[in-house]
């Protein structure tokens, strides 16, 4: 039979183990999930940031070529172009320097060209400027002769006919220029007349390293990297794979990569695959030139932080369980020591040993249920000891009287028979006393069961109390940390929002600048008008001055058109700034009114603690009822002891009757002598019974 101490310690250990494992599993699950989300967010942020950098480079190239196309066509005469093939050569001389200037101011530009529709120009008309190396100056070379190639020859003249057929600016696929040994990518803008007639193209060949260097700079965790593909998941640039290689050809797990990358809805999402027995994830982002920036990293590196956190939690679980085991042993030993001492006192009582014990005095000094039980048992033992003392005195009196009666019975044996009857009544009373003593032992057993109930209820109270304290500490810590972080985030967001709104107002300064430009344009128009008037007055001598005045007027008109365009752009910028301000204001209101308000939810957690307190109160109430039951059993023991006293009195009366009958029945001396012998035997029985009790 296992002891209460063993059961208590085992219960504490089981509860500690269960609690540690449960909390550990929940903590590991949440931490791994949270760390995994953070890791994927970091990977997404890296991809978005690098995409913005590459797109910024691409947009600068597009802006340069688009602007060059507008400048090249600003003074182009469409009618003359249709009427004479020599017009293209003449016009090229006026825009050749602009082509060179734009190319020199475009990072990575290796080649710049302006080519005309061969149907309306000579086969080699146009501008073709190329560097012999990345660091060399641009040199104007003879353009490609269109008469040598057919329109379907994509390899040689696809750079011209593909954009014209698409009727929009396009990025060409990267290719190796064998003449200068530079890997390039081209951006080409087709030129059209107002009626849709193709005029030609403007384009630049850009050193592809302008983009690939940014790709190579991308670092994803420790060994992760980035590469480029097209929309069909064919490699455009990869440090370990050749151009044109399909991702599906690298590993069977990438068989669905084309469908995944081809769906723009999957941008920023991850796909799992295996490469050289290493589990990896990749995510892609769309670039403005039609390519896909793909980021890849091993799963082990992505979740490295999560795995490390899980290990720390497991170690903390083990330490917590060991500490709980030590504390459980200490608490179990401390709680069961008084019970073991009280059990020893009860066992001593069951052996009819009523001698005082040192442990009993210490136990009665405790201010708890154990102390109350020890006090009640002490009272019971005291009463039993007093009763046994009285019984011992009665035995001594009986022995003395029996000796005196023995001398009398030798002379008056006739009275012994009456004494025998009285002695039988006394024996019956003693049997009833024995039955009452058995009842006392039974009540002592009930007291033990009540003690066990009290012990179990105390354990439940201790366990619930610990859980309540743990919940309180955890809620306080989480609430404080979360509130502090949210307040910090709100303060930073508010500061940045106010700064952004204030900076947005600087856009209004552009309006003032455009107003100044308009005034200058108006004055220029007025100057041109005055110049025309003076030229008219000067007659033939003022014709040259009239041409200059006309050009100044045209310049003023173009300036007004440009300022109008700027006004429209500024209007769009002001609208975007206004939308951004409203968005930031909405975000700040959400943080202030919703997020900070959500912390009121923690007040609801208090209801759980009320429920726990009610449970604890019920357990304590059951403990009180168990103590009341114990007191009732003790009262029954007291009642039993009273009955024993009553029986002893009856025995005394029976002995007195014997004495009376001995004096009044002298004719029965012989029979009384026989009864006296029986009485002597009964006294011997009482002596043996009393001898079993240890009172001193």
UniProtKB/TrEMBL annotation:
<dbReference type="InterPro" id="IPR004089">
    <property type="entry name" value="MCPsignal_dom"/>
</dbReference>
<feature type="coiled-coil region">
    <location>
        <begin position="613"/>
        <end position="640"/>
    </location>
</feature>
<keyword id="KW-0175">Coiled coil</keyword>
<keyword id="KW-0472">Membrane</keyword>
<keyword id="KW-0812">Transmembrane</keyword>
<dbReference type="Pfam" id="PF22673">
    <property type="entry name" value="MCP-like_PDC_1"/>
</dbReference>
<dbReference type="GO" id="GO:0016020">
    <property type="term" value="C:membrane"/>
</dbReference>
<feature type="domain" description="Methyl-accepting transducer">
    <location>
        <begin position="394"/>
        <end position="659"/>
    </location>
</feature>
<protein>
    <submittedName>
        <fullName>Methyl-accepting chemotaxis protein</fullName>
    </submittedName>
</protein>
<keyword id="KW-1133">Transmembrane helix</keyword>
<dbReference type="GO" id="GO:0007165">
    <property type="term" value="P:signal transduction"/>
</dbReference>
<dbReference type="InterPro" id="IPR003660">
    <property type="entry name" value="HAMP_dom"/>
</dbReference>
<feature type="compositionally biased region" description="Basic and acidic residues">
    <location>
        <begin position="470"/>
        <end position="487"/>
    </location>
</feature>
<feature type="transmembrane region" description="Helical">
    <location>
        <begin position="309"/>
        <end position="331"/>
    </location>
</feature>
<feature type="domain" description="HAMP">
    <location>
        <begin position="333"/>
        <end position="389"/>
    </location>
</feature>
<dbReference type="Pfam" id="PF00015">
    <property type="entry name" value="MCPsignal"/>
</dbReference>
<keyword id="KW-0807">Transducer</keyword>
<feature type="region of interest" description="Disordered">
    <location>
        <begin position="460"/>
        <end position="487"/>
    </location>
</feature>
<comment type="similarity">
    <text>Belongs to the methyl-accepting chemotaxis (MCP) protein family.</text>
</comment>
């Amino acid at each position: 039979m296992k002891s209460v101490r063993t059961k208590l310690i085992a219960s504490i250990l089981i509860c500690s183990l269960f609690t540690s494992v449960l909390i550990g599993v929940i903590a590991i699950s949440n931490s791994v999930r949270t760390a995994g989300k953070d890791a994927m967010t970091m990977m997404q942020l890296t991809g978005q940031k690098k995409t913005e950098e590459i797109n910024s480079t691409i947009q600068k190239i597009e802006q340069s070529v688009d602007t060059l196309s507008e400048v090249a066509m600003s003074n182009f005469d469409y009618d003359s172009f249709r009427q004479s093939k020599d017009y293209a050569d003449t016009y090229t001389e006026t825009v050749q320097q602009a082509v060179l200037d734009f190319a020199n101011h475009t990072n990575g530009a290796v080649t710049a060209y302006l080519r005309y529709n061969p149907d309306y120009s000579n086969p080699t008309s146009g501008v073709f400027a190329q560097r012999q190396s990345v660091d060399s100056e641009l040199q104007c070379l003879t353009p490609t002769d269109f008469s040598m190639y057919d329109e379907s020859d994509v390899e040689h003249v696809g750079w011209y006919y593909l954009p014209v057929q698409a009727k929009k600016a396009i990025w060409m696929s990267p290719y190796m220029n064998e003449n200068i040994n530079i890997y390039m990518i081209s951006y080409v803008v087709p030129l059209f007349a107002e009626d849709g007639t193709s005029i030609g193209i403007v384009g630049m060949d850009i050193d592809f390293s302008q983009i690939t260097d940014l790709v190579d700079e991308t670092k994803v965790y420790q060994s992760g990297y980035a590469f480029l593909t097209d929309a069909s998941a064919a490699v455009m640039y990869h440090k370990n794979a050749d151009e044109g290689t399909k991702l599906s050809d690298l590993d069977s797990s990438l068989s669905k990569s084309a469908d995944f990358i081809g769906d723009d809805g999957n941008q920023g999402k991850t796909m799992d695959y295996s490469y050289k027995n290493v589990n990896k994830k990749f995510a892609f982002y769309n670039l403005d030139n039609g390519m896909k920036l793909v980021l890849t990293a091993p799963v082990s590196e992505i979740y490295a932080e999560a795995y490390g956190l899980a290990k720390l939690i497991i170690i903390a679980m083990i330490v917590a369980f060991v500490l709980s085991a030590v504390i459980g042993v200490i608490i179990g030993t401390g709680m069961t020591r008084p019970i073991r001492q009280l059990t020893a006192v009860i066992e001593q009582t069951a052996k009819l040993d009523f001698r005082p014990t040192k442990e009993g005095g210490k136990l009665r000094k405790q201010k708890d249920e154990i102390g109350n039980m020890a006090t009640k048992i002490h009272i019971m033992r005291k009463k039993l000891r007093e009763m046994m003392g009285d019984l011992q005195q009665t035995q001594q009196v009986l022995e003395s009287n029996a000796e005196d009666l023995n001398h009398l019975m030798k002379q008056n044996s006739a009275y012994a028979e009456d004494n025998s009857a009285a002695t039988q009544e006394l024996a019956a009373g003693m049997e009833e006393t024995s039955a009452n003593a058995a009842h006392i032992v039974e009540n002592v057993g009930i007291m033990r069961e009540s003690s066990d109930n009290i012990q179990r209820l105390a354990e439940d109270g201790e366990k619930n109390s610990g859980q309540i304290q743990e919940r309180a500490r955890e809620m306080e810590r989480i609430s404080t940390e979360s509130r502090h972080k949210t307040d910090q985030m709100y303060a930073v967001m508010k500061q940045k929002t106010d700064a952004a709104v204030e900076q947005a107002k600087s856009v209004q300064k552009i309006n003032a600048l455009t107003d100044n430009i308009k005034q200058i344009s108006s004055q220029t128009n007025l100057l041109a008008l005055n110049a025309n008037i003076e030229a008219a007055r000067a007659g033939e001598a003022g014709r040259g001055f009239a041409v200059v005045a006309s050009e100044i007027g045209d310049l003023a008109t173009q300036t007004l058109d440009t300022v109008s365009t700027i006004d429209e752009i500024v209007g769009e910028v002001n609208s975007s700034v206004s939308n951004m301000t409203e968005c930031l204001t909405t975000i700040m209101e959400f943080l202030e009114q919703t997020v900070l308000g959500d912390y009121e939810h923690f007040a609801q957690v208090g209801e759980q603690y009320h429920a726990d307190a009610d449970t604890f109160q019920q357990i304590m109430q059951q403990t009180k009822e168990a103590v009341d039951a114990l007191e009732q059993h003790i009262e029954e023991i007291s009642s039993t002891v009273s009955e024993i006293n009553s029986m002893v009195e009856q025995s005394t009366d029976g002995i007195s009757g014997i004495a009376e009958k001995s004096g009044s029945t002298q004719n029965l001396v012989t029979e009384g002598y026989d009864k006296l012998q029986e009485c002597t035997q009964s006294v011997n029985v009482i002596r043996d019974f009393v001898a079993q009790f240890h009172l001193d």
